[in-house]
Amino acid sequence: MLTKGRYQTREATTPADLRTAQTLRARCFGLVTPSDEDRFDAASLHILVEERDSGALVCCFRLLPLRGADLSQSYAAQYYDLTLLHGYTGGMMEMGRFCVHPDWRDPDILRVAWAAMTEQVDRRGVQMLFGCSSFAGVDTARYLDAFALLKARHLAPTQWVPRVKAPDVYRYGARLRRKVDTKRALVQMPPLLRTYLMMGGWVSDHAVVDCQMDTLHVFTGLEVGAIPSGRKRLLRALV
Question: Residue 238: what pLDDT?
């Protein structure tokens, strides 16, 4: 268990813990069903961030340890052709279903969540963290500055680039012609994606249009060895 200020993190250990996380996910993702469940839950480790005094769940996410050869078992593999990443020999871990309760805005929540993720990365010897970073809604026009910034500065290395697999995608890497407005782009960017990028993360050259979840999402990768040493110290200071 990790603690910072008002918050603590722990692993979900009971069916009731998982149901609570699935209920928060459904609310955050705007689903009409009371619970967000899928086949990846059973194989994943679920991390809960709670307010210490009340025990209220304020954030949750799941982690799925994998190797490159096992990427077909990941959530992201449904939407992206990850053939090139199959050759990655280090330990990998998919982070998914990351959400923060809409009534809680404290930046310490994100900090303690990343500290919990860092502890898992260190414990398991993970060398690459990956997942899908989501923009709310499917209107690409709302996020043109953000996509322009991703294209200009944060596209995946050639040797790992995810290829198109989903039937409906926005190919901003090939089609978008726009001068980068960095300030506006960062405002449009989801907080989780901003954090990935600050640590040296990279993204796919296209966004998947996911009408079922009402999101646009980009594949996001972060090689642990590329994280600046100063940021590593900040993350591990909480562990």
Answer: 62
What integer pLDDT is reported at residue 181 of this predicted model? 94
Token pair listed for 105: 């805005």
- SS3 label, residue 195: helix
Taken as a whole, the chain contains a residue count of 239
Alpha-carbon span 222 to 204, nearest angstrom: 12
CA atoms within 13 Å, Cβ hemisphere of 188? 20
Nearest CA-CA partner of 45 in 60, 58, 62, 59: 62
Q: What angle do CA 175, 134, 214 make, to 5 degrees?
A: 90
Strand-pair category, 91-100 with 126-136:
parallel
pLDDT exceeds cutoff 80 at 233: no
pLDDT value at position 62? 98
DSSP state of 161: P
DSSP state for residue 78 in the 8-state scheme: G
Nearest to 38 by CA among 89, 84, 78, 68: 78
**Which domains are assigned to the chain?**
2-236 (3.40.630.30)
Residue 78 amino acid letter: Q
Q: Which residues contact 230 (CB under 8 A, 6 or more apart)?
A: none
pTM > 0.85: yes or no:
yes
- What one-character DSSP code corresponds to residue 134? E
Report whether pLDDT(237) > 70. no
Q: Residue 176, exposed/middle/buried by CB under 10 A (0-12, 13-18, 19+)?
A: middle
